[in-house]
């Protein structure tokens, strides 16, 4: 039986499993590996802190994801289908690993983040 997201270990499992899928994904994987050239040793702990802060009130994240994604959008235009692929993989991963109110919150917040990022990318293009 699946349990809910309750601690940083759950966040680490979620993030690691999700990004394993991202890297293998034919549509969004190359954005991470070829365009952004993500340093996974740096990126993963940042994502642990990001999601711990959002879901568990960990207060461990201090960053500006919009600034990073806006700069990435200038290198490679991020389109709606990129964000759709991201959220599809994220929801799939949450559903595979967890069940409960925090898991539902993670999916909701993930979808909100994807929509906000897409909107911000479009807005930054008109400035």
Task: Describe the structure using short key phrases.
single chain, 127 residues, mainly alpha, 0% strand
Question: How would you portray this structure in words?
Answer:
This protein has 127 residues and is mostly helical. The protein has one domain: Globins (Globin-like, Orthogonal Bundle). Helices cover 76% and strands 0% of the residues. The chain contains six helices and no strands. The protein has helices at 8-24, 29-35, 40-56, 65-75, 80-97, 101-126.
Please outline what is shown here:
This protein is mostly helical.
Tell me the layout of helices and strands.
Elements: H1 8-24, H2 29-35, H3 40-56, H4 65-75, H5 80-97, H6 101-126
Helix pairs in contact: 1-2, 1-3, 1-5, 4-6, 5-6
Cα-to-Cα separation, first versus last residue: 49 Å
Count of discrete structural domains: 1
Determine the structural class based on helices, strands and strand pairing.
mainly alpha
Class in CATH?
Answer: Mainly Alpha
Given as residue ranges, the uncertain stretches (5+ residues, pLDDT < 50) are none
What is the level-2 CATH architecture name?
Orthogonal Bundle
Tally of DSSP β-strands:
0
| Mean pLDDT value | 94
Let me know the CATH homologous superfamily.
Globins
- Output the radius of gyration: 14 Å
In the CATH hierarchy, the third-tier topology is known as: Globin-like
């Amino acid at each position: 039986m699946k349990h809910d997201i309750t601690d940083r270990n759950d966040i680490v499992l979620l993030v690691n499993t999700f990004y394993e899928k991202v890297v293998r994904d034919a549509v969004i994987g190359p954005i991470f590996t070829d365009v952004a050239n993500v340093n996974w040793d740096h990126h993963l702990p940042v994502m642990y802190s990001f999601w711990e802060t959002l879901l568990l009130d960990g207060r461990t994240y201090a960053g500006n994801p919009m600034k990073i994604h806006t700069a990435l959008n200038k290198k490679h235009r991020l389109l709606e289908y990129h964000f759709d692929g991201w959220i599809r993989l994220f929801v799939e991963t949450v559903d595979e690993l967890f069940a409960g109110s925090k898991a539902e919150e993670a999916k909701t917040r993930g979808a909100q983040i994807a929509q906000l990022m897409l909107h911000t990318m479009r807005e930054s293009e008109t400035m």
